[in-house]
Design brief:
39% of the residues lie in helices and 24% in strands. It is an alpha/beta fold.
Length: 267
């Protein structure tokens, strides 16, 4: 990405999925967010909160269960997920942003019905949704008012709220918003090969091969699937990457200077 394209793309949002990597490097992340906003980019933040959900499940005597990287969600787990994601995690993140002089508003997909979902076909997974549609208008309204939307991954299903994977919905939001960049800020340095070396770039064929041989597995599957899915929907000039949140100023490096510390996905 060259400086001229940065100027042209600044009117389009940058979608950042904040993972566990954001917390140990909070000050650097906040500084990066401020720098990107000063450069004229709109920001949309999506967060997860899996460890918090698991912690509260154990408090009530439930063992977390995952199927292909997705949390098995019965009715009780759904209640805890809503409280943890749309409550505790969301509001704590908004508070941190506000204290760092980044005006933010926390919402989830149920608010305004802006993320609609249907139940996943696999009945064993429970109250887990797959995104049926994203209405970007609430996000555009918040951005126009000067706020950074901070989104918890709870969607509106046909019969009530549904838990949705934060990585997946970040890709759906990036597509609906026409984002210039989709960044998965993670606590790993990127997608690794079997020898443990970070792969700087991956295309679809390479991803499928790595999934088949088990190199990409577990929670990394939804991340890489979301990256590939987003490529189908964002503008062709957009970038999609899994970025090392432990690298100083990784967001600024990626968005403003076109240097990706992690794995960049290509069509």
């Amino acid at each position: 990405m060259n400086p001229q394209s940065n100027i042209q793309d600044a009117v389009r949002p940058v979608v950042i999925k904040l993972g566990g990597a954001a917390l140990p490097h909070r000050d650097a992340v906040l500084e990066d967010l401020r720098a990107v906003r000063r450069a004229g980019f709109q920001l949309i933040l999506v967060h997860g909160g899996g460890p918090v959900i698991s912690e509260w499940l154990k408090r009530v005597g439930k063992e977390p269960v995952f199927v292909n990287g997705l949390r098995q969600t019965d009715a009780e787990t759904l209640e805890i997920a809503i409280m943890a994601l749309a409550g505790k995690v969301n509001k704590e993140l908004v508070a941190v942003l506000q204290q760092g002089d980044t005006p933010a508003v926390g919402i989830c997909g149920v608010d305004g019905g802006f993320i609609r979902a249907r139940r996943q076909a696999n009945p064993d997974i429970g109250f887990v949704g797959e995104v049926a549609g994203v209405d970007p208008r609430p996000l555009e309204a918040l951005a126009a008012a000067g706020y950074v939307p901070v989104i918890a991954p709870i969607a509106l299903g046909p019969d009530g709220p549904l838990n949705i994977n934060a990585d997946t919905v970040a890709g759906d939001i990036a597509g609906a918003a026409g984002a210039t960049s989709l960044i998965f800020l993670t606590d790993v340095p990127g997608v690794k090969d079997r020898a443990g070396s970070v792969l700087p770039a991956l295309d679809r064929a390479a991803v499928e091969a790595l999934k088949r041989d088990g190199t990409i597995s577990g929670g990394m599957i939804p991340k890489v699937d979301a990256c590939l899915s987003a490529l189908d929907r964002v503008p062709r000039t957009s970038t999609v990457a899994i970025v090392d949140g432990g690298h100083p100023h990784a967001i600024v490096e990626h968005v403003l200077h076109g240097r990706t510390h992690g794995t960049l996905f290509t069509g």
